[in-house]
UniProtKB/TrEMBL annotation:
The chain crosses the membrane at residues 718-742. Residues 1-26 form the signal peptide. Keywords: Membrane, Signal, Transmembrane, Transmembrane helix. This is LuxR C-terminal-related transcriptional regulator. Pfam families: GerE (PF00196). The lineage of its organism: Bacteria, Pseudomonadati, Bacteroidota, Flavobacteriia, Flavobacteriales. Gene3D superfamilies: Immunoglobulins, Winged helix-like DNA-binding domain superfamily/Winged helix DNA-binding domain, YVTN repeat-like/Quinoprotein amine dehydrogenase. The keyword Signal applies. Residues 857-914 form the HTH luxR-type domain.
Length: 918
């Protein structure tokens, strides 16, 4: 037979069987043991809008825009927001371009643009349709071409040049795509057209082969690909003809009904359908994979698709999904909950054995099957030559494809280990046993639970007790008995709990309490493993050819390292945080393929793919999408100034498109410095003090160029504002002036008081001196008055004596002459001039005396007043008599009468009364 012919026959047969296979896939939807890439479901409840998402568009930063039944749906990587049209219309198409987001809906076309506060505002272009007759149209597709925006409906093709809208042509237009700087447009069943420089549609003749309405157009691996509801075509540049892409793909499409096509990379083509989810096809290898509700999608109807940095975004009839199609990590998930938590696994050529908390399972293309008799918790699976051993909670089993065989039902077991002589040793709940052809052989003096077994050499093994530490056990030459068993103390007297033992670089290593130790055979002690000190808190999971898998027990990140220069970190989020805490396990099947046990299945890690990712790392740049305080929302263009009152609670909306770094570190620098990790898109600060602030956002593990910086100012409180500071300065100046004035006044008053005091003292001194002088004068006048009075009294007394003597001798003297003498004597005694002098002197000493006495006793005579004056001078009756020219008896009588006039009590002394009261 012709070799060439045989080759063609073989290809035909292979194609036939592939068609049968893909047909079965279309019916069954997925392969039982298919491993799926990470799929993130966003439900309508999560994004807060309607179920259906008719179109998707992703801008250069990675922001997702969806045309939703409720309006424009925006996802910044951390938060979803919905913006509604005033009319409430369904948005059918969306296209992000040059800082604007164009959307089309029923009889409505326009664009959304962020205002200065970070909120999208809609700008309708409805007014530009005045010259165009619209027939109940909805706009389903939008594309930018040569600076213009082209959009289509099922009734026409339109152009918006920034100023006006022009209708290019009527017709049923179903898709548009740029190819080699030309705009290709699909027009119903008429095929493809090219838009020329004059906006005329030129029929593309190779599209005549396309018999059905074009559903979508894409460019894949620099080739034009056209999809109808039942077929996929690719343009052959050499022949300038469309050819069927693949019978395999078309077989799937014919039953699932193609709706959208996308090119994820030069190799991967994605076909989205209305009935059976989507299919990925590697155009280089021919490999394909189907995705629908059975393996992770929310819905089987793909309404829209777009891709960004390896992530395929799907707008579904119910929700939005994100699929990392080319992820080096793929998952098998038991969605029914039958499998439970997987603790260990073994991969054979076409099937898996899985040890879980519900039993030992067999997994192949026919599905998952619990092995007969393997129910219960299984900890471990070990392959010893052709045997597979299961360490179970109830027994130790040998595992077959359809059943298990109990090797020991006496007790459960933790671990199985192959000795250097290829014997199988088992660590049980009650000691150590060795498997022989005749059954298990137990070592009677080993009666404690053994979680892990490790051979130092053929005659020395190590056993890890779950609670009491590690034991070093020596065996006899024939290994039939133990010769020495003792627990190793550590150098720092650490009490080991749940230790793990390994052999690293031919050294016995022990990991316990987040520290690494190694066995020192010279001191027969465990000591700090200096070479692994940097890996404290990292537990070892797998060793293969000098490379190691560790897990960070603090954050569950995986670390792949050669303990030298090579270090690869797999963050826990990449395994969807599904690792089994404290029982993490990694199984290697080759140098590049590893399997990780999970809470509800397992994951497959492609090491080469993980290493390749590091060459094309994409880390998005975080940004502030909104900034508001207690009372208002602030502009984002300039440096916002926030009132002190409004700064009681400051809220930032943070956007961070999905990238290879998922955590953002924030740092607020200013009057109050705060830092931490961002949990979601909301960042809040309370009661900031006034001053200038800078908010720095940086993805963990990124360089400085991905750091976002946002500056704002918290204004001082009203009582510390510039105006109030000016007021305070004025008040301070006024206060100083007031204090100065007050002190001046006090000083002036003090001076005045001093002056007044001085003046008063001076006056008092003068008055005192004057008073002393007056008193002296009064005393002197009193003395003069007394002397004058006494002289007058003496004179009158002498005269009266003379008068008496003359009266005695009046017979002897001339009567006329005597009378003349007596008259002169009486005149001398009663001399008015003397009285006037006395009265004048008396008034100078006792001013207003007569006036005061008359005011009280107005009936007094001048003679009474004269007597009063003499009594005031404290003169006796004897002294008064000569002054008044009467006898002492006459004075007494006069005093008696005066008392009666004054109506004085008989006990009242007249002299004292006058001295005291007048």
């Amino acid at each position: 037979m012709n070799p060439t012919c045989s080759k063609e026959v073989f290809k035909s047969l292979l194609l036939f069987f592939n068609i049968l296979l893909i047909s079965n896939l279309a019916v069954e939807n997925s392969t039982a043991q298919q491993l799926n890439p990470p799929i993130q479901n966003y439900t309508s409840f999560e994004y807060g809008a309607a179920n259906q998402n008719w179109d998707l568009s992703i801008n250069d930063s990675g922001i997702i825009y969806a045309a939703n039944n409720k309006g424009l749906l925006v996802f910044n990587g951390l938060k979803w927001k919905t913006y509604n049209l005033k009319s409430g219309s369904i948005i059918r198409s969306v296209y992000a371009h040059a800082g604007k987001v164009y959307t089309g809906s029923y009889l409505e076309f326009g664009y959304w643009k962020k205002n200065t506060k970070g909120t999208f505002v809609y700008h309708s272009l409805e007014h530009l349709f005045k010259e165009i007759e619209l027939s109940s149209e909805e706009f389903w597709g939008i594309k930018a071409y040569h600076g213009n925006i082209y959009f289509r409906s099922f009734a026409g093709l339109y152009k918006y040049d920034g100023e006006q809208i022009i209708k290019i042509e009527s017709g049923v237009f179903t898709s548009m795509r740029l190819y080699k700087d030309r705009l290709f447009v699909a027009k119903g069943r008429d095929g493809l057209f090219i838009l020329d420089e004059n906006d005329r549609l030129i029929h593309f003749k190779p599209s005549e082969i396309i018999q059905n309405t074009v559903a979508d157009i894409i460019v894949h691996n620099e080739k034009l690909v056209v999809g109808t509801k039942d077929r996929l075509y690719q343009l052959n540049e050499k022949s300038n003809q469309f050819e069927v892409v693949s019978p395999l793909i078309n077989s799937f499409i014919s039953k699932a009904e193609l709706n959208k096509v996308s090119s994820l990379s030069d190799d991967i083509l994605v076909v989205g359908t209305l009935k059976n989810g989507f299919l990925t096809w590697n155009s280089e290898t021919g490999e394909f994979q189907t995705f629908d509700r059975t393996n992770g999608l929310q819905n089987n109807t793909i309404l829209s698709m777009d891709a960004f940095h390896g992530n395929l975004w799907l707008g579904l009839d119910n929700g939005i999904d994100r699929v990392e199609v080319q992820s080096p990590i793929n998952f098998y998930t038991d969605s029914f909950g039958e499998l439970g938590t997987v603790y260990d696994m073994i991969k054979e050529d076409d099937h898996f054995f899985l040890a879980s908390n519900t039993g030992v399972y067999y997994l192949d293309d026919n599905g998952l099957k619990l092995l007969q008799g393997a129910e219960g918790h299984s900890w471990n699976l070990t392959k010893a030559e052709e045997k597979i051993i299961s360490n179970s909670n109830a027994a130790t089993f040998q595992v077959f494809k359809d059943r298990v065989l109990a090797l020991d039902k006496a007790t459960g077991s933790f671990d199985s280990e192959i000795s250097p002589s290829n014997d199988l040793w088992i660590g049980t709940y009650t000691g150590i046993a060795k498997l022989k052809d005749t059954g298990l052989v137990r070592y009677e003096n080993l009666d404690f639970p053994v979680k892990t077994i490790l051979f130092e050499n053929e005659r020395v093994l190590w056993a890890a007790h779950p609670y009491e530490g590690v034991y070093r056990i020596s065996l006899s030459a024939d290994q039939k008995k133990t010769t020495e068993i003792y627990r190793l103390p550590s150098s720092d007297s650490l009490q080991f709990f749940n230790p793990e033992i390994y052999k690293i670089n031919n050294q016995i290593a022990v990991y316990s309490n987040s520290k690494w130790y190694r066995y020192n055979s010279f001191s027969d002690h465990l000591e700090i493993f200096e070479e692994l000190k940097h890996l404290n808190a990292y537990r070892l999971l797998n060793t293969r050819r000098g490379n190691y898998w560790f897990i960070n027990t603090r954050n569950n990140d995986l670390l792949y390292t050669d303990l030298k220069n090579q270090n690869l970190i797999v963050p826990s989020w990449r395994l969807e945080d599904r690792l089994v805490k404290d029982y993490e396990n990694i199984i290697s099947t080759s140098d590049s393929t590893f399997y990780v046990t999970l809470k509800d299945g397992f994951a497959k890690l492609n090491l080469k793919g993980l290493e390749g990712e590091r060459k094309d790392v994409f880390i998005a740049k975080p940004f502030v999408t909104g900034f508001r305080g207690v009372e208002k929302k602030y502009e984002l263009n300039d440096i916002p100034e926030v009132s002190f009152k409004d700064a009681r609670l400051l809220q930032f909306d943070i956007g961070y498109p999905l990238s290879d770094s998922r955590e953002i570190e924030y740092r607020l620098i200013g009057g109050d410095t705060v830092k931490g990790l961002l949990d979601n898109g909301d960042l809040e600060f309370q009661n900031l003090s006034y001053g200038n602030y800078e908010l720095q956002l940086q993805p963990l593990g990124s360089k400085n160029e991905t750091t976002e910086s946002f500056k704002f100012t918290v204004l001082s409180p009203w009582y510390l504002s510039n105006m109030m500071k000016l007021v305070y300065v004025i008040i301070f100046i006024l206060l100083i002036a007031l204090i100065y004035w007050y002190n001046r006044q006090r000083l002036k008053k003090h001076r005045s008081l001093i002056e007044q005091k001085f003046e008063k003292e001076h006056k008092e001194r003068i008055n005192r001196l004057e008073k002393e002088r007056l008193l002296d004068e009064i005393d002197m006048k009193r003395k003069e008055l007394a002397n004058t009075t006494m002289i007058a009294a003496k004179k009158n007394e002498v005269l009266m004596e003379i008068q008496g003597e003359l009266n005695k001798d009046k017979s002897k003297m001339n009567e006329y002459r005597l009378k003349n003498i007596m008259t002169k004597i009486n005149a001398a005694i009663k001399n008015k001039d003397e009285w006037q002098v006395f009265e004048t002197n008396f008034n100078e000493i006792h001013e207003d005396f007569f006036k005061d006495v008359l005011a009280v006793y107005p009936g007094l005579t001048s003679k009474d007043l004269k007597l009063c004056s003499y009594l005031k001078m404290n003169l006796t009756s004897k002294e008064i008599a000569p002054l008044m020219g009467i006898s002492v008896r006459g004075v007494e009588v006069h005093r008696y009468r005066l008392r009666k006039k004054m109506e004085l009590d008989k006990n009242e002394n007249l002299t004292n009364y006058l001295i005291k009261n007048f």
